[in-house]
Amino acid sequence: MSIVKYTDADVALMARMMRAEAEGEGKQGMLYVGNVIVNRAKASCLDFTDVRTIRQVIFQVQGGNYSFEAVQKGNLFYNRARSVEKRLARQNLNYWRQHPAKYALWYFNPYAPCPPSWYGQPFSGQFKNHCYYEPAAGTCASVY
């Protein structure tokens, strides 16, 4: 059973985003990015009260910019999804979740050590270049 409803088009879209954001971090790094995408689709709190589908998550605009940098800057995002990334996306959609992104709603590459919090949200861990952050306790029960 999947965590959120999805179509084959959602799988391809999510696969493209996972590759664009974390190809340099291998399959594990792409799975962590996938965790964040799925968590945002299931969250009904904070910045994510009005996104319920994979497409809405990927193309969400916050503060005048897309939430995922790859949408506006990434050439990789606009390439066709490959079968390996589609398989990884399906893993995420069908309940693959793991620390440090298990409950994460945000990640970024600081090009420096990970800060202990990001916009008030606690650091949950790091994988290669990406720092992951989950909601502060008691602020987003729908993610857990």
UniProtKB/TrEMBL annotation:
Keyword vocabulary terms for this entry: Hydrolase
A single GO molecular function term of this UniProt record: hydrolase activity
Superkingdom per UniProt: Bacteria
Domain Cell wall hydrolase SleB, residue spans: 24-133
Entries under InterPro entries matching the protein: Cell_wall_hydrolase_SleB, SleB_dom1
Protein name: Cell wall hydrolase
Organism of origin: Thalassobacillus hwangdonensis
Pfam families for this protein: Hydrolase_2
Taxonomic path: Bacteria, Bacillati, Bacillota, Bacilli, Bacillales
Signal peptide: none
